[in-house]
Design goal:
Strand order of the largest sheet: 15-12-17-10-9-22-19-20-23
Shape: elongated
Largest sheet: 9 strands, antiparallel
Radius of gyration: 31 Å
CATH class of the largest domain: Mainly Alpha
CATH architecture of the largest domain: Alpha Horseshoe
Number of domains: 4
Structural class: alpha+beta
Number of helices: 20
Mean pLDDT: 90
Helix content: 25-40%
CATH topology of the largest domain: Leucine-rich Repeat Variant
């Protein structure tokens, strides 16, 4: 009925037979069926997801569209338009991005595919500066959160986030490819956990730090360490993860494809015009350098990009009204002119963009007889349910003036800054809006008209999301629906070894259409893209066609990107295989404490039994937490059975009579700093004991959990709870301790500690935890609800059957 994976990083999984068995049991016992899930977030998602129709074979991996909204106008001439280049990932969808990352990396095994996705997300994204993570107060997610976590937006619009957002992007892409993934959190830092089968046939959860660019390798250097192995086969800094997930996000409901009217175009720049929505990319030293410059190419320093939408309906061409959002009211047919004196004539346009608006203006050429002729612009952010006047022609604007009207008041965008000002009526920070032109003639209607109108919307985008060219032949694909009589004009502008400002134009009347652009150069840096413009124009009846750009052989001298492991850091200075000292060099240092300490990282990876005593000496005497805990791992790897009594003795030395514990920030050495170090060391020892199945370590781990220094919200506490759950089944004290965490007997526990405790209760088979698990199931923290449900299923609680069927 229940499968539980006991291997490092394993998770419990509810399966259909469990649900059916519980349902049959519930009916047989006549148990009343409680209500299905009532939590508001769940209800919202259920309504949105209804009929989504996702499957592993789907071309895309998306939820129903929420932003920017599919509707553009009464009859747009081109919809669902996208341009991609075979030399760069297609960012229009998480699944497409992942498949391209795999293809471009030549990845075949699951391990290679995971590293490919990880690498390409890191190339497209960077850590944020003091303005904080990407945030949209005007476009909150389904749960109402303003911080952006959707992969499509992060990759295409921003390219910037904290550790959590970058981990979310990798998580969503990996899940879109049909694998399991979790956002894994440790207090104030987040990595991603990716589940897949390794070269040895074992499926594991692997930890990858996206924002800090860190991983840890197994000593074979053919696979990454699992999440649990980060404290048993290596000591990865402070990362004693309790393997809490942070809840799967509602899948991407944002669309990147373009919709265009005749006369509308979008020019996207590999640069900017100084009009950001949120300028939050890290620069300079530090987090901006976590990815090597050669991974970014010629587009440095990393910054936001801009695009400019322009739409100028040809008022002299029949059918321009198809570009309106609704039929014009009280206008002369085919003209922007009132049909009668005194009647309020209106025309409404809708603007939608997959990129967030950062500026907007309207250019007008008017015919206005007197100051009594009214010309107004009104703005709506709620699809025309309400309107607010944002401009009215001043009295002095008489005759045939041409005027540009700014319509985009702005506010400073920072994660922790103020929210948008009340009463803001602006496209700024939105993906869609409506604009109404209102004309009221005081006299002759012909003296109150608009003779020409052009809309200009500036957007923010991630430069790295654009389909950039590379040396050699680039295959460009244009897809989308194009109306008969309309063509798409696609224009690339770039610099290369053959000259600056090179231009290539393709006319696309039927889609999909594929053509080639040849770029001259031998290095990525030789090709600097400037812009790509997509425009809906009148068809010229010549069919699809592209300007010849010649054809070049792929330059044999172009250096390939280095192996992905060279682009990543390793936790706690773990050396790569070719950086390891030779075994005889390490053994020669065994009798020299300082020399061995300098080589300890290589020694842990070599882990020969002849190193045991040197590791043991460091484990007892070394004050540095990093080196001490590496020595714990080194002992275990060098000789597990000899390490067993030594580690048990260290775990039992809370007071530091035999072990030198660091006092850390306890400058007055009042004792709490050393106890804190003991708790951290005890957690690492707990992971080792859990992996080895050493039950005698449980009492010491229970003392760690009970320590005042093993605080709520402190990362190793998650790990302590996890290892007690793994080690404690059938052993006294474990179930009671986990139940105490679930019941929060020591005070309010961190939500991520409760996640781990909820799963541990089921693994331990503790029916005494059922009441607490039911309370958590009724809460609103979905990762905790999820694990509570898993454990209640393991414990045979039939009361959850209706909710599980609803889930």
């Amino acid at each position: 009925m229940m499968t539980y994976d006991p291997r490092p990083g394993g998770r419990a999984v509810l399966v259909a037979p469990l649900i059916l068995a519980l349902a049959i049991l519930a009916c047989a016992q006549g148990t009343p069926s409680p209500d299905a899930e009532r939590e508001p977030y769940y209800q919202r998602l259920g309504a949105i997801w209804k009929g989504a129709g996702l499957s592993p074979e789907a071309e895309y991996w998306r939820a129903p569209e929420r932003t920017p909204g599919d509707f553009l106008s009464l009859d747009p001439e081109a919809t669902g338009v996208w341009v991609s280049c075979d030399r760069w990932p297609d960012g229009s969808d998480a699944r497409r991005f992942g498949l391209d990352a795999i293809r471009l990396s030549g990845a075949r095994t699951d391990h290679e595919k995971a590293l490919a996705v990880y690498r390409w997300v890191r190339r497209w994204m960077i850590y944020n500066n003091s303005n904080g993570s990407s945030i949209e107060h005007l476009n909150p997610g389904p749960a109402g959160h303003a911080v952006v976590h959707q992969a499509d937006k992060l990759l295409n619009v921003y390219g910037v986030h904290w550790c959590g957002g970058q981990a979310r992007a990798v998580e969503q892409i990996w899940r879109a490819l049909g694998y399991r993934a979790e956002k894994v959190i440790r207090g104030s830092h987040t990595i991603v956990g990716l589940h897949y089968r390794d070269y040895d046939g074992v499926e594991r959860w692997h930890g990858l730090d996206v924002s800090h660019s860190n991983v840890a390798w197994n000593d074979s250097y053919q696979r990454l360490l699992s999440l649990d192995e980060l404290s048993t086969q290596w000591y990865a800094g402070y990362f004693q993860y309790g393997l809490p997930g942070n809840g799967h996000l509602y899948f991407n409901d944002h669309r990147m494809e373009l919709h265009l009217r005749r006369g509308e175009k979008l020019e996207r720049l590999w640069s900017n015009v100084g009009k950001p929505y949120q300028d939050n990319a890290a620069r300079g030293k530090g987090m901006a350098q976590r990815v090597p410059d050669y991974e970014r190419g010629p587009y440095l320093p990393f910054t936001y990009g801009n695009g400019v939408w322009r739409y100028a309906p040809d008022l002299g061409r029949a059918g321009w009204e198809k570009g309106l959002a609704e039929p014009a009211a009280n206008m002369v047919p085919g003209r922007l002119q009132p049909a009668a004196v005194g009647s309020r004539a209106t025309a409404v346009w809708r603007f939608r963009s997959p990129y967030i608006f950062s500026d907007a203006a309207v250019k007008l050429r008017l015919r206005r007889g007197t100051a009594a002729d009214r010309v107004r612009l009104l703005f709506s952010s709620d699809e025309g349910k309400s309107w607010n006047a944002i401009w009215e022609a001043p009295d002095e604007l008489i005759g045939n003036p041409e005027i540009t009207v700014p319509i985009c008041p702005k506010f400073e965008v920072t994660e922790k800054g103020p929210k948008p000002p009340a009463g803001l009526h602006s496209p700024f920070g939105r993906y869609a809006y409506r604009l109404k032109l209102e004309l009221t003639a005081a006299g002759n209607p012909g003296d109150c008209r608009v003779e020409a109108i052009e809309f200009e919307n500036t957007v923010q985008l991630n430069i790295y999301s654009l389909p950039q060219l590379h040396p050699g032949n680039n295959t460009i694909t244009v897809r989308g629906r194009i109306d008969p009589g309309t063509a798409l004009r696609v224009t690339y502008v770039w610099d290369d070894a053959a000259g600056k400002g090179r231009r290539h134009v393709a006319m696309v009347e039927k889609s999909p259409y594929t053509y080639e652009i040849a770029a001259t150069g031998s290095r990525w840096e030789d090709i600097i893209c400037r812009s790509i413009t997509v425009e809906a124009v009148e068809m010229v009846d010549s069919g699809n066609g592209a300007e010849p750009s010649g054809r070049v052989s792929q330059p044999a001298s172009a250096p390939e990107l280095p192996p992905v492991e060279r682009t990543m850091g390793r936790w706690n200075g773990q050396p790569l295989e070719d950086q390891l000292p030779k075994l005889d060099q390490v053994l020669a240092a065994v009798g020299n404490g300082q020399r061995f300490k300098r080589m300890v990282r290589g020694a842990v990876m070599r882990a020969d039994p002849r190193m045991f005593e040197a590791f043991k000496s460091m484990a007892y005497q070394e004050p540095s937490p990093n080196d001490k805990l590496l020595a714990f791992v080194g002992m275990y790897r060098a000789d597990p059975e000899k390490a067993r009594p030594v580690l048990l003795d260290i775990l039992g030395d809370r007071e530091g009579r035999r072990v030198t514990w660091s006092k850390g920030k306890d400058k007055k050495d009042l004792g709490w700093g050393r106890e804190l170090s003991w708790c951290e060391g005890g957690t690492v020892i707990g992971y080792i004991a859990a992996e080895a199945g050493w039950g005698e370590f449980l009492p010491g781990l229970l003392r760690v959990l009970a320590s005042d220094q093993c605080k709520s919200g402190w990362g190793p506490r998650y790990g302590t709870v996890r290892v007690i759950g793994r080690l404690g089944k059938g052993r006294p004290g474990a179930a009671e301790a986990i139940r105490g965490v679930l019941e929060q007997k020591r005070g309010k526990e961190h939500g991520d500690t409760l996640i781990v405790a909820a799963l541990a209760a089921g693994v331990l088979g503790d029916k005494g935890s059922i009441a607490a698990l039911r309370r958590h199931l009724d809460g609103e923290y979905w990762p905790l609800k999820h694990n509570a449900a898993l454990s209640l299923g393991m414990l045979g609680d039939v009361s959850i059957v209706p909710r599980m069927l609803d889930w």
